[in-house]
Design a protein that fits this description.
This protein is of the alpha+beta class and 887 residues long. 37% of the residues lie in helices and 20% in strands.
Length: 887
């Protein structure tokens, strides 16, 4: 029994409760940093686990880069590392490794393509499991702490009890895990809350509230880099759950430790005992700046010899050792340990700041935090609207500053984004009189020579131009700050900044500017400001704007909210498309998207592909039943039947009158056999369902059946003809669409189909001593498939020969790039780009550069990266790559 998550019978921690999880890093030093008061807000919210993760990639390109490493560790609030995941992932053969990335991660690209590394679909499945159910490891370790309770409609179920206790043993919280860790419950004292599916009470009257098990997700620069890489990676792996890192649906609350570090550094006094940052020189401008690289922060705050000096001891790794820079990036797991150590040190230095950032990770709490503040005056609760706040401004790549301001408004109408606009109150001139230069190339705030205009009376268009200019060339003194509410904005109450010695002397100025914003003129100004923000925000990129878009680019270019079309009536006038046609199109589009999501749930990477566990098998069976129900609902079809059953029998002896029966217990050998059958069925689903995806673009037509019901002949009806119909005919049009006489015909792409085909291509691995090649498997599957006509079998076998040709063409396209584009214009890393990068690196291979000495000893970048072996292919085969519709 692993007791590292529990107190022993004496209420004391065991001397060395190291998790029995292979060879994880010791967390002995980390556990000494635990303080109940610093994490009590997380205990009350049930967020008792943190998922800390890091990635290493082939490139910095969020869309096309491949993962080479993923490392994640599951940490409890009291500092215990209870689970970990370490993956060395195989790079697909059509991805070119950036030489700079190879240098940073100390990798040899040839080795990254080795079949000894984890295949992409297995890696995706393990990453999904890591984020989806981190509590399963805790559930397994609480085997000796079972409890049977009645929860929800008097149902008796097994729970496992996790107890967290304060360092002085005066406080204790009990958390109950349900359903293998998928949900948890905590004590809820509200007596007015009735028993329901999500609440229950014990025999002694103690009330419990059940929620989906929440967790914090943490990394270093994860919201700008790692998360985007993961989303694209999971999308390419056909997962329907790509935003597991931070969405409310999955009860994941994201904190970027880099943002926390910046905020703490900006608030810190920076003296001998302060939180330090290294000063680094910008090689281009010669200007010094504070570096917030993880390795620089770790080196700037080293541990001291005296371990009894408390807060001044600096940062230690979780096992108490000193940070070693040469291990950074070479091992993602080491970067995870460094992130954990830095976060623990930040919490020790500024627990109030870390607490606020963790609370801000809840999207439901950040909105009221920005717009109002409760406080007690003479025993009465009062609410101050739009309080003064302090926020960190970061300007890429290396500028960070602290400012004060109020929230001018929150914009939730910008497609899928939720953003707020902060108005600075720490200005040299009162907001009511602040001016802006509106002519000439330079546009600066405050009283500068030239044509000036008072900002509060500027038009919406002029304000939007200010935002546009800030995007082009960021000004650190800009009057406004756009914050994304879903990205854990670094904002704290102004009073907290005052307590840290920042801005306290300017309280009156902040309050004067706040009162202006709350006044009539200020409210009018804020309304204009939010309209300007909407105008200036870029729309989500449409796939039609990309020349020859690739499957990887589908994720962030799909239609968010279908817009009404303007139809050219042929007489020089345009009219909006008829509302009924637009409504039917939206309905059909949503239905097809729902079908595609169901298909993704069916064929995405599954836990059964790498685990032999009864609960894993049962979860797969339940998922297939749910998919089958949804597929039947939307299409009337069912999933194909398995060739070999993977459902264990339920009873050894069936129950009868007076006989309760004997339930069947699945043995390890039986579980292994059934799981193998389930894996084969999953690949069968991928083969059978890959052509059922829609991938609808933004184009569609209305078609009329000019033939019979049995032999329909569909012809397009021009939109102007539809729009010329009178009101009576519009009703007929609606009826005809719904009865099938007319139909909405949407343009369909084959992105998802290609991604499924690539799953087969990349699935080369060894299983039970056998070499598995899924492309050969699928060709054999179709060649010998029963209950299929010879014509259909031949067609499917031929189709897979075409796919193999496409793979070769795609590989040539990715390695050599599009033939009509220059090297630097290619959207992904190509062999020619890599060669140019190698030349730049070799020019810098001299003493005094930022290339570590051990990397220079490898014999030069060209030898390290080995590009001669990866640069095969020609432009002729590139031109034969599958072309996609453009615009």
């Amino acid at each position: 029994m692993v007791r590292n998550a529990l107190a022993n019978n004496d209420g004391e921690l065991p001397n060395d409760p190291t998790p029995q999880l292979g060879t994880p890093a010791s967390d002995k030093w980390l556990r000494k940093q635990f303080k109940w008061d610093d994490v009590e807000h997380l205990i009350k919210a049930g967020r008792i686990l943190s998922l800390v993760y890091d990635t290493e990639t082939t490139d910095l390109n969020h869309t096309f880069a491949a993962l080479t490493q993923f490392s994640g560790k599951v940490q409890t609030l009291d500092g215990r590392i209870i689970d970990q995941l370490k993956l060395d992932i195989r790079v697909p053969e059509d991805v070119v490794v950036s030489p700079q990335a190879a240098m940073v991660t100390q990798s040899k690209p040839k080795e990254l393509y080795s079949e000894d590394r984890v295949p992409v679909h297995i890696a995706a499945g393990k990453i999904l499991l890591f984020f989806r159910n981190p509590y399963r490891a805790l559930w397994d370790q609480l085997e000796d702490h079972k409890l049977m309770v009645k929860s929800g409609k008097k149902k008796v179920e097994e729970v496992r009890v996790y107890t967290i206790e304060s360092e002085d043993h005066t406080k204790k919280a009990e958390i109950r895990l349900h359903q293998g860790g998928k949900t948890l419950s905590y004590q809820y004292p509200d007596e007015n809350l009735p028993d329901s599916t999500n609440t229950y009470h014990d025999s002694d009257g103690t009330r419990w509230k059940k929620i989906a098990a929440p967790a914090m997700t943490e990394g270093y620069n994860n919201r700008r880099f790692d998360d985007r890489i993961l989303w694209s990676f999971l999308h390419r792996s056909m997962s329907d759950e790509i935003f597991l890192t931070h969405t409310k649906k999955f009860r994941r609350f994201r904190v970027d430790t880099m943002d926390v570090a910046k905020l703490v550094a900006l608030l810190d006094e920076g003296k001998d005992n302060g939180f330090k940052t290294l000063k680094v020189e910008n090689k281009g401008s010669g200007e010094e700046y504070r570096s917030f690289k993880l390795s620089d922060l770790m080196e700037a705050n080293p541990p001291k010899d005296n371990l009894e000096v408390g807060i001044d001891e600096g940062i230690r790794m979780p096992n108490g050792s000193e940070y070693e820079r040469d291990k950074a990036h070479a091992d993602a797991g080491y970067d995870v340990d460094a992130t954990i150590a830095l976060k623990a040190y930040l919490r020790k230095r500024a627990p109030d700041v870390v607490r606020t950032m963790e609370i801000n990770s809840d999207f439901d709490l950040i909105k009221p935090f920005l717009m109002s503040r409760e406080h007690i005056v003479e025993g009465r609760k009062t609410i101050d609207p739009q309080p003064v706040l302090a926020f960190a401004r970061s300007i890429y790549p290396n500028k960070a500053s602290l400012h004060f301001g109020v929230c001018g408004g929150i914009n939730e109408e910008i497609e899928e984004r939720r953003q707020a606009v902060m108005i600075r109150t720490d200005t040299d001139v009162d907001l009511a009189h602040i001016t802006y230069q509106i002519d000439g190339k330079k546009k600066k705030l405050f009283n500068t020579p030239g044509v000036l205009k008072n900002v509060p009376v500027m038009s919406v268009e002029e304000l939007a131009a200010m935002f546009e200019k800030q995007k082009e060339k960021p000004d650190p003194n800009f009057l406004f700050e756009i914050v994304d509410l879903r990205k854990n904005p670094p904002i704290i109450p102004a009073e907290m900044a005052y307590d840290h010695g920042k801005g306290e002397g300017d309280r009156d100025k902040h309050e004067t500017n706040r009162r202006f914003v709350l006044g009539d003129e200020g409210r009018k100004f804020c309304k204009k400001l939010m309209r300007a923000h909407s105008m200036a925000m870029p729309a989500m990129l449409d796939y039609k704007a990309i020349a020859n878009p690739q499957a990887e680019e589908h994720l962030f270019t799909s239609i968010a909210q279908p817009k009404r079309y303007n139809v050219d009536m042929g007489n020089g006038k345009t009219e909006l498309l008829a509302e009924c046609v637009h409504a039917e199109w939206v309905k059909a589009l949503r239905k097809n998207r729902a079908i595609d999501n169901v298909l993704r749930r069916a064929i995405k990477p599954q836990t059964i592909e790498f685990e032999n566990r009864v609960d894993t098998l049962e979860a797969f069976i339940d998922r297939m039943k749910a998919v089958n129900t949804s597929l039947k609902k939307y299409t009337g079809k069912k999933l194909p039947l398995p060739d070999q059953s993977f459902t264990p029998r339920k009873w050894d002896v069936k129950p009868s009158k007076g006989n309760p029966g004997v339930p069947h217990e699945v043995t390890d050998e039986e579980c292994k056999e059934l799981t193998a059958n389930a894996r084969e069925y999953l690949w069968k689903l991928r083969a059978e369902l890959m052509y059922d995806f829609h991938d609808n673009s933004g184009r569609f037509t209305v078609q009329q059946n000019t033939g019979s019901k049995e032999e329909p002949q569909w012809q397009d009806i021009p939109f102007p003809v539809i729009n010329r119909m009178d009101v009576t005919n519009l009703n007929i049009l609606t009826d005809n669409i719904r009865t099938g006489k007319y139909r909405i015909d949407m343009e369909e792409l084959d992105w998802d189909t290609e991604l499924v085909a690539r799953m087969f291509r990349d699935a080369k691995y060894v299983e039970d001593g056998k070499n598995i090649n899924r492309v050969e498997w699928v060709k054999q599957y179709w060649a010998t498939r029963e209950n299929t006509s010879p014509v259909e079998r031949d067609r499917q076998v031929h189709e897979w020969k075409v796919w193999e040709e496409d793979f070769a063409a795609l590989r040539a396209l990715r390695i050599n790039g599009a033939p009509h584009l220059d090297v630097e214009e290619q959207r992904w890393m190509t062999a020619e780009k890599a060669k140019k990068e190698i030349i730049r690196i070799e020019k810098n291979l001299r003493p005094g550069t930022d290339i570590p000495a051990e990397e220079r000893q490898w014999g030069g970048a060209r030898h390290i990266c080995g590009w001669q072996a990866r640069g095969s292919g020609n432009h002729e085969s590139t031109q034969s790559a599958r072309q996609r519709p453009i615009g």
